[in-house]
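Narrative summary of target 7.
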Amino acid sequence: MILPIYIYGHPILRKVAKEIDTTNYPNLQELIDNMYETMYKADGVGLAGPQVGLEERIFVVDMEPVADDDHPEFKGFKKAFINAQITEKTGELEWVEEGCLSIPGIHEKVPREERIRIQYLDEGLQPHDEEYTGYMARVIQHEYDHLDGIMFTDRISPLRKRMIKGKLSNFEKGKVNCHYRIKTV
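Modeled conformation, tokenized:
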């Protein structure tokens, strides 16, 4: 089932998500499947729980759509991250353009560390402790930020933030047009 994606300005996007009770979370696999389906419909590579109205610490990533000859490691990279915790960020800050399904049509350069270490449960509830670098680390950090109520626009330069203030204000007023199902304030 395709879920509505919550748009910038909706209060759920600013809440810190709570850990999922993995011993008693009915239909967890169905939720994960719905999140993937929603993400694909919106042409995304990642989607976090708060973006579909959930206060739980879950996000999904599928790097297959951006796999190519330069990045064969993206092929087959499809994971759910449950109760994730980034335990380490290292390396230099890299400024790379990002977009977000909750902020359609806006792309800005965002600084992020080049390497992360993350602990999480997969969709089979198996624990993992993994390191990621480069673009994979960036996508994971972007989705992880959603779990802490942080939007990528919070990380851009003050000048760029002032330049897109009008567009963000329109989102807060419910003035948004995109090709996927959304929910505004």
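The helical segments are 28-41, 134-147, 158-163, 165-172.
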